Amino acid sequence: MNHIFILLFLSQISFGQQNVPFSIEVRPRVIDDAKILVNVEVTNHIGRPVDYLEGFLAEYTSERDFLGEQRMVLIYNYEPALQTGFSTTKTTSYPLVGEKPSVFEFNISKVKFSGENRVFAWHPKSGFIRID
Q: Hey, how many other C-beta atoms are within 10 angstroms of the C-beta on 20?
């Protein structure tokens, strides 16, 4: 009887998880002790192609003090749409200041789906919010 409850509990956990529409991976690399190349990779897990994808790359010190942010467009309207299961990558560079490299975080600000005129913002906790 206890085994049934354990299996039921495990199945609820596996099927009850929310699907994350995007997975975001930020990979900074120090080059020649002079600059940092930051690769931002976004993978589409939605069942629809994405026609436009924009966000902001925030820079923090190693102590997590905010230094600034830079706008980054990963997919333009004139480029092929990002299909489900595929990813796109953009790279930008920053100067290396001090001994410890900065910490970077990417947040999506605008998403437009293929074949639609509506523009959405996306946040991991709030989900999609229509902004236009």
A: 11
Helix (H) or strand (E) holding 59, with range, is strand 50-60
Assign domain 20-130 to a CATH class: mainly beta
Structural domain spans, the chain: 20-130
Beta-carbon neighbour count of residue 124 at 10 Å? 11
Give 32-57 pLDDT, tens digit per residue. Answer: 888 999 999 999 999 899 999 999 99
The overall average pLDDT reported for the chain is 85
Other Cβ atoms less than 10 A from the Cβ of 51: the count is 19
Edge-to-edge strand ranges of the sheet holding 87-95: 22-31, 35-44, 87-95
Helix (H, G, I), strand (E, B) or coil at 104: strand
0.90 surpassed by pTM: no
Rounded-to-integer distance, Cα 68 and Cα 36, Å: 15
pLDDT in tens, 21-35: 999 999 999 998 889
Instruction: Name which of 103, 97, 104, 10 is nearest 55 in CA terms.
Output: 104
Q: How many whole angstroms separate alpha carbon 106 and alpha carbon 55?
A: 7
